[in-house]
Amino acid sequence: MSVYTSVSDLELAQFLRDYDLGGARALTGISAGVENSNYFLDTEKGHFVLTLFERLPRSKIPYFLDLTEWLSLRGIPCPRPMHTLAGNSLSTLCGKPAAIVQRLRGTSIEGRAPSVAEISALGTLLARMHLAGEGFPERHPNPAGFSWWQETARHLVPHLSREDNALIAEELAYQGTRDRTNLPGGVVHADLFPDNVLFENGRISGTIDFYYAGDDVWLYDLAVVANAWCSETDGHFAPVLLRALWDAYVATRPLQAGEEVLWFPLLRAAALRFWLLRLDAIHFRRPGTITQCKDPEEYRQILLQRRRLV
Ligand SMILES: Nc1ncnc2c1ncn2[C@@H]1O[C@H](COP(=O)(O)OP(=O)(O)O)[C@@H](O)[C@H]1O
Ligand SMILES: N[C@@H](CCOP(=O)(O)O)C(=O)O
């Protein structure tokens, strides 16, 4: 269970005095998630999620809280941070940076394929999220971009087979020659996998886990979603789902000239990113964390399939 820091009743009561949320009614550890200590928190005034940040440096956290506040104020269902009486969204609990955010309703579809209606809703929401992020004043270049791929690939060399190292090197060389500089972009979620989207009655009621968000080209975010939601177990695309995702996205944010030509390279980039991330998680487990390692092979297959498209 991913609760690394226990919070006593007394500590919670003192912490809540800084907010206008009333007294605590229940605090329940959340078992999913790997980065932070998360609790469902019920108070006299509502239902919330309490997060103690275990790894992110304090100075990096306001970007994510400000972003989710910005997006939620613009109609994107994501966790709106609560403010203290002094007006801060970031606070301190048990000596760690901590925040209380709105608890969103709904459940993820993890473990089953999405319906066409669900994937259409996701395409629309992603496009709305991109447009809603326009004007967000804080800049945060995607920390998992090209330099991160190169550095991660370098660290992994001694741990991988000759074939896998060659595949990664080839893909990096290919990606290095794709010019994305003129593509439209802005804020991207960059990890909108099925476990990070909540549905209620067929509608999207929440998007969570913005901790990989940053600035990048928008179509890259759609590529992340396409690979994560529209792939069969052998890495092939499920064409009906992919079409529904694409159509819904472009209906809300019509593509600009020059974007579509980079779609296949971006699908490959998104596959490489998550293959490397999963390899990194397996070969360099962070001490003290309960890492739910996801299968890197799934993303190697997706990368191989996407390479056949170009
Ligand atoms: N704002 C929220 N509303 C409802 N459920 C949430 C919210 N935030 C997190 N959760 C639940 O907590 C789990 C872990 O959250 P997540 O952000 O993925 O954790 P971590 O950052 O530790 O990886 C999610 O799978 C979801 O079930
Ligand atoms: N969605 C990624 C894993 C990212 O980790 P998270 O637990 O922080 O969402 C994957 O499937 O590899």
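^ LJ64HWYM complex. The beta strands are 24-29, 37-43, 46-52, 91-93, 96-102, 185-188, 197-200, 203-207, 214-217. The two ends are 42 Å apart (CA to CA).
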